[in-house]
Amino acid sequence: MILVSIFLVLLFQGAASAAPSALGPPEGFRALDTPNDGGKSLSVVWNRSADERPERKIQVWMAASQGDFKKVAEFPSNSRYIKPGDFPWWSEPAAKGNHYAKIASSQAFPIEDGRSYAVKLVIREGDQESSSDVSHAVSEPNWFNTAQVNNLVFVLAFTAVLLASIRAARLNPLVYLRRIAGLDAVEEAIGRSTEMGRPILYLTGSGDMGDVPTIAATVILGEVAKKVAHYDTTLKIPHRDPIVMAVCQEIVKEAYIEAGRPDAYKEDCNFFITSDQFSYTAAVDGIMLREKPAANFFMGSYYAESLLLTETGAGTGAIQIAGTDSDHQLPFFVTTCDYTLIGEELYAASAYLSREPVLVGTLRGQDFGKAFIMAVLVFGTALATLGVVMQTEMVHYALDLFKDFK
Fold this sequence. Notes:
The chain has helices spanning 2-18, 149-171, 181-196, 212-231, 242-258, 277-291, 305-315, 330-336, 345-354, 357-389, 393-404; strands at 30-33, 41-46, 57-64, 70-76, 99-104, 116-125, 128-131, 135-138, 200-203, 235-239, 270-272, 295-299, 319-324, 339-342. The protein is an alpha/beta fold. The protein has 3 domains: 22-138, Immunoglobulin-like; 146-161 and 361-404, no CATH class; 175-354, Rossmann fold (3-Layer(aba) Sandwich), CATH 3.40.50. It has a 6-stranded parallel β-sheet with strand order 11-10-9-12-13-14, with helices on both faces. Strands 3, 4, 6, 7 and 8 form a 5-stranded antiparallel β-sheet that branches. A 3-stranded antiparallel β-sheet has the order 1-2-5, with no helix packed on it. Residues 14-19 have low confidence and may be disordered.
């Protein structure tokens, strides 16, 4: 009889311990305007509790100023945690481990900017239910996205570096720039053409004036034309775009004036051939075979005609200097040309040749910016690695800063 009594007592205690604990209202609940958005949404935050589980559901109920509450969201109690970047790290709701849910405007419950809404949380598990106090919030579009503060800081810092680099270039026009063999050979190519009494052929590529490589090619043309004017060498520039031809005419004319040789300028050095790709290629190949220029320049963007042009030029024995950002054509230029400007070297060429302080300073400022970005990548990779190896609060805090400012 005593054993039966003990068994019944233990059974009732086990049943009592298995019964779900009473639901309490969510602590720290409040509704607020969603940060860093364009409006028409609200957010809710509340504290984490120790007894969260998938069976326990969280419901978000909302009501307009004069209206009944409607359920707008439901999810398990052990979900919807605040992630780095949801709130600025300095704000109060950004505490780790707390819950956060964004409620956007929908057809079932539209949210209007400038209107107050009542929001409450309801916790349900089985037959039990508990509600939070009602919190009021107003949705407003945000004028400033604090998640992009890093972009503002970087732009301001980069602008300061550019201005400082330009000032340094004005004080010292011979400031160091990395040597580019293809640009060092420009003087040699023009001098060789002068000694041999043969023309220089300059191509600006297949793009129009809306293409950045074409713009870079026309800028380099101005520097080449100045040197050609000094040496009194013949310059030939065949075109397949009339707008590019008109721009090049003005650039070459201005170059001859700056060189002090306006009388040596010839209008027919720029001439139009055709807009058709391979008809233009055939015509230029004919010029190379008939006139045998001593130097060929291929600057700008190119397509299937690149190898047809450079192979013919190489067969005539000309010095060939190419520059392009068309990576699919680079192997052909590297194979058939004496010197090749790869990628952004094409854009740096104008600063390298002219030594113009604004261009040189801008180029150096960009290099400083690239070095900074690479340093940040290395530093961020190291922090991420330390975050895996060393589970320390300091490392995680530093990683959160990188994630917050994205």
